[in-house]
Each structure stands twice: as C-alpha cells, then as structure tokens.
Amino acid sequence: MNARRRFPGRQQGAALLLFLAVAIVGASWLGIGLLGRAAPTGAELEAKTGLALSAAKQALLGYAAQYAARTDHDVPGRMPCPEALTAIGTASEGQANTSCGSGAVIGRLPWRTLGIDQLRDGHGEPLWYALSGGFRASPINLGTPAALPFESGNVVAVIIAPGRGLNTMSDPGTPTAPCAKVNQQVTNRYAAPLSPANFLECGNSSGSYGNPATMNPAWSPWSNDRVIAITAAEWADAIAGGVADRLQRTVAPVLAGWDAREHAAAGKSWGGTWSRAYLPFASTFGDPSTNDYCGNAGVREGLAPVALSSAASCDSRWSATASVLGGLLWTGCTQQATYVSCTFVRLLGSLLPATITATANIGNGFRGTITASDISVSGTTDSFTMALATNGVATATIQVTFNPLPLLSTTEVRIPYVPDARFLTDTSNASYLALRWFQDNHWRRYTYFAVAPGATPGASPTCGAGGTCLTVSGLPGTSDTRLVLVLSGRALATQTQPSGTLANYLEAGNATTGDLSFQSGAITSSFNDRVAACPLQYTSASGTESICN
C-alpha cells in the first residue's frame, strides 16, 4: 500500500504544526520589532514640526514669487487666502478660499493651491495659516503694510502647527492673558466649520500671533502651538526679481516704443506723423507717495511721467493766438473742455486767410497728436504744421480760409487738445493691458525713470544717431541706451520710505543724478537695485535676443 495513502491524517497534522511554528516565529519577530521601536521623542516631534513649518513658508514665498513673474497675473505679490473653515471634508479642502475679505484672516494652509502635499506637524495635525489684510487685492507693492500682529512687530503671514488637542480645564493653575483654559478634545473638533479655538491657544486663535513658549515662559503650560512668520522683508525679496523681470519685459518696451505703438493704434503720432518722436521728461524726484508724476522741462531723471493730461498739475491744453488780414476781426481764443476755440468776425472787405498759433506743454507726459483733419472750421485748413521744442513745448501753426460769410457774422475754429497716449487710457489697447499691473498697483512709486538727453523732446541729434545716451554697467549690450528703469527694492537697513530723498531708494552708483550712468549688480544686503534698460541685447542658448529695440 502506498505510504502516502496509509497515513493521510499524520501528514495533515504535520503541515498544521509547521504553519503554526512559522506563525509563532513571525509573531515573535513582530513583537520584538514593536518592542524595539520606542515612541517618538519630544525632540523628534519638534523636528518634524519644524520641517513642516519651514516647507510651508517656502511654498508660500514660492507662490508669491511665481505669480510676481507671470505676465498673465495683474497683482504681483498677492498671497493666497487660507482654506475656508467650511472646506474640511469637501472637494474644496486644501484649496485657497476664493475670497477672504480685507482684514486679517485665518484657516488651514491651502496646500492644493500651493501645489504641495498636505503638511502635518509632529502630532499629525494639518498646519494653519493666517494672512495680513492688504495682500490679496490691488494695490499691492513694496509699501503695502504688513499688519498681522506677531510677537513684537507686524508680519505678512504666519504658519501655525497646532499640536495635539489640549484639555487644561482641570489644571489648578491660572493662565496669564492672552492664554486661557481650553478643552480642544471635543467631539466636534473636526466638524465644519472648523473653530480655530479648538486647535490654537494664547492669542493664536484670536488674532495676536506668536510662539507662546518663547514669548513668555508663563504661557508655555497653556499652549503647544509652534509658529513661523513671513516678514515684509522676506516677502519683498521673494517677489522683487519677478517684478524686475516684468519691468524689463513689459514696462520698458512699452515706454521706450510708445510712439510706434501709438501710430499703429491711432494712425498718427509725434514720430510717425511729424518726425518728432520723444520720450517725455521725468517728474522731479520727490516723495513718491505724493508726487504728481508729471514731467518737468529739462528733468531727465526722477519718477515716471505717467500722469494724464486731465491732472491739474499736468496741463497740456492749447493756448492760442491768431493773426488776421483784411476783412476779419479776431475776437479771441478760449479754452473749452476738450478744445481751444478761436472766433472771428467778418468785416467789410474780402476774406483773407487767418493764421492761428497754438502752444501746449506736450513733453511733460506721453501724449498723442492731431492732424489737420481733426480741426473744425467753416472753411478750409490751408496748412497745418507741428513743432516740438527742446523744453517740451509743442507749437501748432494753422492757416485757414473761411467760407463766404455775411457781414458782421461770427465763425469759429476749434482745435482739439492732444489726447493721452492710448497705452495710458485705452482699456482695450495691448500696451495698456501689459502695464495694468504696474499702474494699478502703483509700482511707479518704486521705479526710478531716466531718459537719455538724445531722446528727450526736440533733441538733435537723437540718441543712437550721435546724440547723448545713457550707460549701464553690469548689463549686456546696453550701448545707445535711451531709457533706464530702476526698481528700488525694499528699504535697506539705512533707508526710510516713503521719503523725498533719493538715497532712501537707490544705492551708490544709481543715487547720483546727472552723470548719465547706472549700475546693475548682484543683490546683497547693501544693494538691491534692479535695472531695466532699452535697448537691451543679450545672448541666450538660442542666440542673440533683443528687447525693446
């Protein structure tokens, strides 16, 4: 008889014993492994919390830096809102709230919006995030106040690791304000809407942020929060490079090439129609928060002359006089809302042409032009010429012949004021859209404007044709520089802003006016000027590239 068939029960029993033996050995090793793994130490939990806080801070600064450089984003420096308190357990969890008001706001860190995994502290709790008001909607710039209270100052934002839920209600001690006894070990701790008080202590749930253990040793028994801040200086340094890149790629080309773009959009311009292309004079440097941003004759360095002609301090209306021959009486020229009106009366005799001379301060800003077809007259415009003087004053000379008039009747000539350049006013203009971020967020307050003598109104010869140009050391291919923009950066240790003193914005090499030279260099603790220039040529992997030629 076959042995396997004679003892089947014995073989099955042996297999079972072998299985049990393996199971026992495995369980023994598992037990030994578990016994060998001690619970994480306090230092290990703190280290994990510190790494999570640091990673969250870098993600938020990276978010601000990325959007500062993106030309499709009109509010460089904008920070994301926290996650909504009602988002837990929904598809919106991890997403920044779409709107979070104008004041300080708190919620969990919007990790999905930041493009990172959810970060948790050493106790497994997701991080919280509070943001200062003013960093979500325009205007946002280097002067936006960091208004979130943090320890002994104000900051842009804080990230908070809440730690494990506390219950100090039965503690016999008495907490020192702003600390209070809390019971965070409640059944609705994770129910929407989340309550900050169920996670944060000692002011962190009510708008006065800090690390309780380091702020006041007496607070440490009542809180296990760990907090890291984003300061105004850290935020400014994160976005400055992106803003400077946009100055070079969008603002400088629009300003330097504005006349050609004006001609393309309107069919007429000072350069294209009258061969009088110019860059306007700078506005004399003064406190950028109160400057009128209207150019001043002969000033080539200061602030950008981007004021509209409607500004009281930037008048570019025509003032006109007339000369007449036999048969006419000139009765005066008066400024109206949109034009200057010159009136004439028919006297005895034949009607001879009249000549009108009109002058306006055009070089104080970026202005369009007019042609003979824009003049309204009951007759014929025989000739129309425009000239632009070195002080920025334009002169229009118009000769008109009137239609036959009854004796003692009055006729009028209307000369419209020159319009502002379209990139300043036309919301559908591509250049306007490219500069919207610059204008709406008042970055002109932190941008120094310099124009070459050979590019100012009436200059002859012009820059690039033998005229005087600017120079920039530290930038490639900056010969024949017509325009320089300098992003001042945040105030350094020795600087105070706002200020009417240029040295509080620019560093050595750039703070001296009149020398026609500028300096670009590595960013350090004592130098944070970033220079944009037109024209600019540089060599990349794809070859020589030109910007704003």
Radius of gyration: 36 Å
Arithmetic mean of pLDDT: 90
Instruction: Report the count of strand segments.
Output: 22
Shape: elongated
* Low-pLDDT residue intervals, each spanning 5 or more residues: 1-36
- Strand line-up in the sheet with most strands: 1-2-5-6
Total count of domains: 3
- The span between the termini is 103 Å
**What summary fits the major beta sheet?**
4 strands, antiparallel
Tally of helical runs: 10
Classification by helices and strands: alpha+beta
Written description of the protein model:
This protein has 549 residues and is α+β, with helices and mostly antiparallel strands. The chain has three domains: 42-230, no CATH class; 239-266 and 280-303 and 425-547, no CATH class; 319-419. It has ten helices and 22 strands. It has helices spanning 3-6, 8-36, 42-69, 111-114, 212-215, 232-256, 258-266, 270-274, 422-425, 430-440, and strands at residues 105-108, 128-131, 148-150, 153-155, 157-161, 226-230, 301-303, 319-324, 328-335, 339-346, 354-361, 376-377, 379-388, 393-402, 410-416, 447-451, 471-473, 483-487, 517-519, 530-534, 536-540, 543-547. Strands 1-2-5-6 form a four-stranded antiparallel sheet. Strands 7-16-18-20 form a four-stranded antiparallel sheet, covered by helices on one side. Strands 8-11-14-13 form a four-stranded antiparallel sheet, with no helix packed on it. Helix 3 runs parallel beside helix 6 (232-256). The chain is elongated and about 115 Å long. The chain starts with a helix and ends with a strand.
